[in-house]
Amino acid sequence: MTRINIPLDEELHRKARLASLLQESSLKEFITVAIEEKVKKDQKQLKGKVPS
Q: First CA to last CA across the chain, in angstroms?
């Protein structure tokens, strides 16, 4: 596992923390799932495209 330390806008942090609490998960779990979903979505969009 890799640890990251990134600056995050206070409002975005507050919203993410609230969303994680509503889902009864930790903020770490919430962010991990969000990143996984974004990567999968981007991979689907890029599939079949040839880089120029």
A: 32
